[in-house]
Write a structure and sequence with these properties.
mainly alpha, DNA polymerase, domain 1, hpI Integrase, Chain A, 2 domains, two-stranded antiparallel sheet, 14 helices
Length: about 300
């Protein structure tokens, strides 16, 4: 195929590819749409053109776009998202035989220093879990949310998609579809099961979502999707109890995922198993947690290395 096809039309085809063939989440598609639309708007202004084609994405124009992002004071990690998206778009163009496409390998993702990994230790986790007031239905629901996030390591989007019939308290496990449509099994701790069982027994409604809102109008005819808690709602819930617990860490639902992984590794779990539990595609992603095993490795070295034996 030649490179004269309208760039906005190609963007739409690429987003459809992400939805249909890659099974990307609506959030990913929305973000990629934003990144590519920003690039297109910049190129139109920079090149003074009303319509763009593939050849307008070249080394010089991309460099100009990167300078623009940097001067807009975007964080380096955010700039990286734009380049990752553009590289994916270019790879898709090449795969579909479009000509005169800028080679994606020529675009380096900006390097940045990652901040320290945030997680809660066991005492902090207990303080957080004990904040909800269990005598209220909202408090009991919130305790279950906190317990399940810490027990399973679910992403917040995975948690909010759960339906009641998904939960098997006898086997203490269930399947989820994670990033990129990848299926995995997650496990519920005995402690979490106690609160989930108590919570589910209070649910006299027939609505499917595991976690629902209690504010506003609700009856038997209310649509399930209107009752289901959103990821943003869960983020607010976690923030509320973090503040009540007066924790020194500004924890989020993802912090509880980090805390679960850290808890497993500190207790002796191997990295490969934690990778599978978290649903990481590559072990390199899981390796961000290896710092927590330093103390345990030092103890092994002190105990077994011949230079330490008196």
């Amino acid at each position: 195929m030649d490179g004269n096809e309208n760039l906005e039309l190609l963007k739409r085809k690429f987003l459809e590819h992400l939805e249909i063939e890659k099974n990307c989440s609506s959030l990913t598609i929305r973000n990629y749409d934003h990144y590519l639309s920003s690039l297109i708007e910049f190129l139109k202004s920079h090149l003074n053109k009303d319509s763009l084609d593939i050849q307008d994405i070249n080394a010089d124009s991309v460099r100009g776009f990167r300078l623009y992002l940097n001067r807009q004071t975007f964080k380096m990690v955010t700039q990286g998202y734009y380049i990752i998206c553009l590289r994916s778009f270019l790879k898709w163009l090449i795969k579909n035989d479009y000509k005169k496409v800028l080679q994606p390998e020529k675009l380096d993702v900006p390097k940045y220093k990652s901040g320290s990994l945030k997680f809660l230790d066991s005492d902090q986790m207990k303080r957080l879990l004990n904040q909800p007031i269990l005598s209220t239905k909202t408090g009991l629901r919130d305790r279950c949310i906190l317990e399940l996030l810490f027990s399973t390591g679910l992403r917040v989007s995975e948690l909010t998609k759960l339906n009641r019939d998904k939960i098997n308290l006898k086997s203490r496990e269930f399947g989820v579809i994670g990033k990129g449509g990848t299926a995995r099994v997650v496990f519920i701790s005995k402690e979490a099961c106690i609160y989930l069982d108590r919570y589910l027994r209070t649910r006299v409604d027939k609505h499917k979502p595991l976690f629902i809102r209690y504010s506003g109008r609700m009856d038997l005819t209310t649509d399930d999707d209107k009752l289901r808690l959103t990821p943003r709602s869960v983020q607010r819930i976690v923030k509320k109890y973090v503040k009540k617990a007066k924790l020194p860490i500004d924890a989020t639902p993802h912090t509880l995922r980090h805390s679960m992984a850290t808890d497993l590794l500190r207790s002796g779990a191997d990295l490969r198993s934690v990778q599978e539990i978290l649903g990481h595609k590559n072990i390199s992603t899981t390796q961000i947690y290896t710092h927590v095993t330093d103390k345990r490795l030092k103890e092994v070295h002190d105990k077994f290395h011949s230079g330490n034996i008196e």
